[in-house]
Design a protein that fits this description.
Elements: H1 2-21, E1 26-29, E2 39-43, E3 52-58, E4 64-74, E5 81-91, E6 96-110, E7 117-127, E8 133-139, E9 148-153, E10 162-165, E11 179-180, E12 182-187, H2 196-222
Antiparallel strand pairs: 1-12, 2-9, 3-8, 3-10, 4-7, 4-9, 4-12, 5-6, 5-8, 9-11
């Protein structure tokens, strides 16, 4: 009986510890607010085409960015555009990138359809910092002859915003009163230290089960 209770203590505390790290994925998204047809462009196209489109975000409690998705379609004049996805820390006060790229993808072909289609970028898990601002973006050569449109939500619904940069010599645009149609998925940082309340719960469980062991021994001696 005693061995069984000791094993129960160890097993129960282990389960609680695992439960701390196995949590559901969370998302920052505007997709549910998008009508599926509104868009902005031209990204990478001629005339007023921008060579960078991005969406700034503020990271919450879950800090491991696993992937992000934008919706694009071909420019009304036709064609598509090759671009790379990047992630930077973002200075929301001065509208500029901070430091080097935290992630750079291989090339993606955007705007391959006359209707909006999703392009999902897998990051393999980037560790970001809770409470800080970042920008998720696509970048292309500013001399593209064809372009793409990005899905857009005409409302300022997040702490972040849709941002554009027209060429390398220009500054980033001041935030539009809108967001890009996007989803960013996050996992919790499994290296995080459990909350004090979780440690306390594990301690109470261990103490309670240990008390049962002691009572069982006393009862056995009494008999």
């Amino acid at each position: 009986m005693t061995k069984f209770l000791v094993r129960t203590i160890i097993f129960s505390i282990a389960v609680m510890s695992i439960g701390h790290s196995v949590q559901a994925q969370s998302s920052i998204t505007t997709f549910g607010l998008w009508d599926g047809s509104q868009g902005v462009g031209s990204f990478g196209g001629p005339n007023v085409g921008s060579y960078r489109y991005g969406q700034s975000i503020t990271v919450g409690a879950d800090t491991v960015l696993t992937d992000f998705t934008f919706w694009t379609k071909e420019d009304p004049n036709g064609g598509n555009v090759s671009a790379t996805a990047k992630v930077y820390e973002w200075d929301s006060a001065n509208y500029q990138l901070i430091g080097p790229s935290l992630f750079t993808s291989s090339s993606y072909l955007l705007g391959t359809s006359s209707t909006f289609a999703a392009t999902t970028v897998q990051t393999n898990g980037i560790n970001l910092v809770s409470g800080r601002d970042y920008i998720l973006m696509f970048e292309t050569d500013e001399n593209q002859t064809t372009g793409a449109y990005f899905g857009q939500v005409y409302a300022d619904v997040l702490p972040g915003s849709f941002l554009a940069k027209f060429n390398p010599s220009n500054n980033w645009s001041a935030p539009f009163n809108s967001e890009l149609a996007f989803t960013a998925n996050f996992n919790p940082n499994n290296n995080a230290v459990p909350e004090p309340s979780e440690w306390a719960a594990m301690g109470l469980l261990g103490t309670g089960l240990l008390g049962l062991v002691v009572r069982g021994r006393k009862k056995k001696l009494a008999n």
